Amino acid sequence: MTPIIKNPFSKLLTVRDLATKSYQLKSQNKNLVKILIIDDNDFEYENEMRVCGFNINCVRDLEYFNMAEPYHIIISDITGVGKKLNCKYEGVGLINALKKQYPYKLYGVYTGNKVSIDIATVLKDVKIITKTGFDKDDWESLLDEFVKENNDPKTWWLKLRGALLDEDISLYELTLLEHKYVNYILHNKTDFKKFLEDNLSNELKSVLININFNFNNSILSIA
Fold first, then answer.
1. Is 220 a residue whose pLDDT tops 60?
2. Is the pLDDT of residue 169 over 70?
3. Based on C-alpha coordinates, what's the Rg of the chain?
4. CB 119 within 8 A of CB 93
């Protein structure tokens, strides 16, 4: 990656500098975050959540994994799903398989039964929801939390940074890329397709293509 800072005394930006701006979820942007609910039964609050402004789609099961590709947030029942893909442990296996294919999405599982410690351990970085006693207001609050996390620029950088570290990208290139990313956010730039193409080394471009990383630039709002 071409050096960004020529003056050695200039300050490199980090995600900590995002705290200098306030971010808020604009109501019109909530509908741009695509949510998938996987449940072999009807999702009780489907219509209510749509009235609340959430872009939600419900399916009984997945016939193939790339059905989940268009969605930013995926929430599944823990039983009765994953059967068409022969997933071991049903919903648990389905979510873990999706996480391997799409590690940058947000995931949740819900169940009417108490989740065992073993299952909670397997479902790393997955929000576990106990369905019993979970009403409309609880679902609205939960989905709001999911959407806000999905739209958080710091969250997106940490996901990308972790993926690039796994690919052995140098800390030097990561430092420059973080500076460029934060600079984009602070100057209200939203064309992240251009961000990922402009001024990057061929090695870094190749890695970004290989890990299939996509920024949700259209849903990042800055106030």
1. no
2. yes
3. 19
4. no
Of 30, 73, 26, 35, the residue nearest 53 (C-alpha): 30
Mention the CATH class of domain 28-150: alpha beta
Instruction: Among 92-106, 113-127, 151-165, name the most confident range.
Output: 92-106
Please tell me the distance from the alpha carbon of residue 164 to that of residue 179, in angstroms, as a whole number: 15
Instruction: Please write down the long-range contacts of 113-118, taking CB distance under 8 Å and 24 or more positions apart.
Output: 113/78, 115/78
Q: Where do the domains of the chain lie?
A: 15-21+153-219, 28-150
pLDDT tens for each residue of 42-95: 999 999 999 999 999 999 999 999 999 999 999 999 989 999 999 988 999 999
